[in-house]
Design brief:
single chain, 262 residues, alpha/beta, Rossmann fold, 9-stranded mixed beta sheet, two-stranded antiparallel sheet, 7 helices
């Protein structure tokens, strides 16, 4: 039986009348299918009505996705966003408690871009809203050298992996070239998070949850965009897949039997 992998959705307007839809990029679904070997399960951004424990009772892993929207500043004591900055409070109301419960239960967690920011906020950290406006910082929102590669695959800068970091063991080496498509970033690191990688300007680019019962890693870039061509991106999903397999085996198919019984 394939493991069931939750993928966080956003609320986005679609169609002629811009009706709200729950949506996620196909790249995450493909990564779950082709590398993790799991069944993708889209978790709707249904706000406070979401049954977080009900989802996690069935899931064998959780992927927190990137998004154009920003985490609500009120959730970390930040100043209001300027007009026009997209927000998704319904998603926030699902993902933050989902993160805390998943970590407490040992469910493997892979947090990507906005997902890593959510991880930091969920555990008590804060965010910078526009890194490019801070003194001495890079513009992380657009790759600086795109070449002929699509913008979402192009490597924008390198990150330096922390010595003895879990991520270093996954991808190998001391540095890694990554894409970069974000404005927000970690300001104050949450207690319990450990820095796994940093950009040349000091921006935190990867974290892990210290002492977590299961796999709990966050990356600020987007490995889901090029996992089919980039070995490091694929290795991140492969490591997550190994953790998912261990978690599912330890449960002995509990989620499958529970669903069947219901």
């Amino acid at each position: 039986m394939k493991p069931l992998i939750g993928i966080s959705c956003c609320v986005k307007p679609f169609g002629t009348y811009a009706r709200p839809n729950h949506a996620v990029s196909d790249t995450y679904v493909r990564a779950v299918d082709l590398v993790v070997g799991g069944l993708p399960c889209l978790i709707p951004a249904m706000g406070e009505r979401a049954d977080v424990e009900g989802f996690l009772a069935r899931l064998d892993g959780l992927i927190l996705t990137g998004s154009p929207s920003n985490v609500l500043p009120s959730l970390y004591g930040g100043p209001p966003h300027p007009d026009g900055v997209p927000e998704d409070p319904a998603r926030d109301a699902v993902t933050l408690p989902l993160i805390r419960t998943a970590i407490a239960c040992g469910v493997p967690v892979l947090a990507i871009c906005r997902g890593m920011q959510e991880l930091n906020v969920a555990l008590g950290g804060t965010l910078d809203q526009r890194i490019q406006d801070l003194p001495g910082r890079m513009d992380h929102s657009t790759p600086s050298e795109q070449g002929f590669a699509p913008v979402r695959i192009a490597k924008a800068h390198t990150v330096r992996l922390a010595p003895n970091a879990v991520l270093a063991g996954i991808v190998g080496g001391e540095t890694l070239a990554v894409n970069s498509l974000h404005n927000q970033g970690i300001a104050r690191l949450a207690a319990g998070l450990v820095v796994e990688a940093s950009a040349p300007d000091g921006t935190i680019e990867a974290v892990r949850v210290a002492g977590a019962r299961g796999f709990a890693l966050g990356v600020q870039w987007h490995p889901e965009y090029d996992f089919e061509t980039d070995s490091a991106s694929r290795a991140i999903f492969a490591s997550f897949a190994e953790a998912v397999a261990r978690y599912a085996a330890a449960r002995g198919g509990v989620s499958t039997r529970r669903i069947a019984a219901e």
